[in-house]
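Key idea: predict the complex, not the pieces.
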Amino acid sequence: MAFDLTPLDLFDPSSYPTRRNEEWKYSDLARVLREVPSRAVLTHLQAATGDFGGFYWHCAGDGQLGDLQAAVAKANGRLYLDLSDVGAEGVVAGYQGEGRITLGVGEHLILLEDYSGALDYAANTTLHFELAKGASLTRVVILDEPEGAVSVRRSTVKTAPGSAFKQYVFSTGAKFQRFETHVEHAGHGAHVEMHGAYLLKDTAHFDYTTRVNHAEIDGTTEQLIKGLVKDRATAVFQGRIYVEKGADGTDARMRHQALMLNDGAHVRAKPELEIYADDVQCAHGNTIGALDEAALFFCQSRGMPEDTARAMLMQAFVVPVAEQIEDEALREMVLNWIEDKAGGFYAL
Amino acid sequence: MLSIENLTVFVDTKTILKGLNLNVPAGEVHAIMGPNGAGKSTLGYTLAGRPNYEVAQGAVDFNGEDLLEMEVHERAAAGLYLSFQYPLEIPGVPALTFIRTALNAQRKLRGEDEMSAPEFLKTTRELAKTLKIDMDMLKRPLNVGFSGGEKKRMEVLQMALLKPKFLILDETDSGLDIDALKVVSDGVNALRAPDRGMLVITHYQRLLDHIKPDRIHILVDGKIVHSGGPELALELEAHGYDRYLGEAA
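Result:
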């Protein structure tokens, strides 16, 4: 089965999806990109390669994603993919690119993707991953983009029997930010995890769209997405798990939990299970609520000022996503990042 | 130490406490007993400052300060500790982190230095041992998946670490088996001190066998209707609250 990605060319406005496209109903790119960006070469924040906290550091700004496989070969299992760019005032410059990473039989890769930058830009990047039998890819994505950025980050993942794909996405949103992952699940012991956490404020927009297609027997999928939304920010979660006829023994679970911290914040959640096989276990859960006032009082009654208690509870809400990261150094890095970002949520 | 005068409290539109008077001097342990719905827990929540517990009239003096004027966390820093009947679960926050955050927030407000991590760990480890709390449990999110007994032991650990001047124990015996009751009571008794007061809220005389009060007050329909010595608990156990229900009417 081919991956179903909406054709998109940043430099051809006729390709911009609108709300009329069901897949883009909550993320209207055409409305945000009123002006077509010019093709631009952006400045990398750190145009260097070398070591980044035990990772092989590879800069791939401007969508220059062509030589990723060479970087993987040098990375010794730990690759830091630096996609930080410095744009300009206003979304006038844009870039797009595609990259490909293939992991051979039994190969393992921990990939840290860093999308942070400054000023404004439009970006459209696509990464293609292919995992051979028994291969494993752990992908941690930090979407810490500037508030003026318009970005569409998409990926396709082809798994093989016995392989494992684990994805953890952490986002603070942008003017427009969409992160799409399409997975072709090979079953036969293959395991897929696609988690995420978002902390959105002001007018940030973050769209996490995931598609998993179980075509074969005995595949497992797990998803936990948690987020905080305040001010006038918008979170979109669209998760679809599709189980083809005959894909028996599939075990797929999807959970999305959001906290809305004030009126005016938006959460659009569309979890979907489409099941054509008979013998499967599938579940999805979706909850949207406010901060637990009883827990807040409990913390305050032990001496924490309200803002400290709120920050602690908010941070605690999203932390479980990061705590699932097995690699300790990476987990600590992400936990620190969350602590830093949750600080911006103190005051209401 | 804690002096409550004519306290009237409503929750939503319902008046729960109706002119309650109570005085607990330093060094004494007082018990509040009463039937369901008398307002026992409301008293605890009001003193701690829970939102939606509106004080219509009355005054509460805590060591010369107007308690009702203080924010919730200021009451804690001033030395008031409410032990919840049902301690809340705080997912994502390890117990150690929770307690240390609370302790240092209190210290900061009092203008004291923060307790360093090594000192905090050492003190906690010693106290946890006496309360039969495993250090691994303290690394888990506070109260999440803990048994009733574990939650109450965790409450006592927090009391012992935060060293409040005044303790309000709301139905601390609920959800405890005999062994856990003993551990928890021993923990509370260890905190009895000439400069510390306690208010023990309970349904049953059972807890008062372990934590012996100096005075017992009977709360019925939002008012203290009778006060007496420790012998009152036995009388209540034998005869129930019936004879006091009339007095409130």
